[in-house]
Write a structure and sequence with these properties.
By secondary structure, the protein is of the alpha+beta class. Helix content is 21%, strand content 23%. It is elongated. It starts with a helix and ends in a 5-residue tail after the last strand.
Length: 166
């Protein structure tokens, strides 16, 4: 009985160490997500897998979510962040300069927003501690034009695969 205990203990410790390593990387360095709608067409298609670098724009402590050493967003790069009004929903959008393009007349805010029970916020200017985001498919995108700039601490990471930029 004793000769089987030692190999089982070694295997158990190895598996636990491997799980901790993978969990630490996933929760602090990289994550994987799937695109669910058409707001980023033609760059990202529904059902496409994306890889997120969670060290950008802020570094996070593993398992705690504490963020520090935040850097500004790179205009034209895609980022993942929670919807400011629906925190369980994640959004992927391009960092943009606010006011660079006017809201197109075809944007139907009455359908997008008033059916959800709240009115859109006026877009705010992004500063050094926040980023302004826009989707590439403007007709299907809910972005900073409706809810304003997103604080850097709320951004979950930068999309690194596929390498897209606008």
């Amino acid at each position: 009985m004793r000769r089987y205990f030692r190999p089982a203990l070694i295997v158990g410790i190895t598996l636990a160490g491997a799980w901790l390593l993978v969990a630490g990387v996933r929760f602090s360095v990289f994550d994987v997500a799937r695109v669910s709608n058409e707001s980023m067409l033609p760059f990202l298609k529904p059902g496409q897998i994306i890889v997120i670098n969670k060290l950008r724009p802020c570094i996070k402590f593993p398992f705690t979510g504490l963020r520090f050493f935040c850097s500004p967003c790179e205009t034209g790069r895609a980022y993942l962040f929670p919807h400011p009004l629906k925190p369980t929903q994640k959004l992927v959008k391009f960092a943009a300069t606010p006011g660079a393009e006017a809201t197109p007349p075809g944007l139907r805010r009455d359908i997008i927003w008033f059916t959800d029970g709240f009115q859109p916020a006026a877009p705010s200017r992004s500063g050094p501690a926040s980023c302004y985001f826009e989707g590439s498919n403007r007709e299907h995108s809910v972005d900073s034009r409706q809810f304003g700039a997103v604080p850097l601490e709320n951004i979950d990471g930068k999309v690194v695969y596929p390498a897209i930029s606008r």
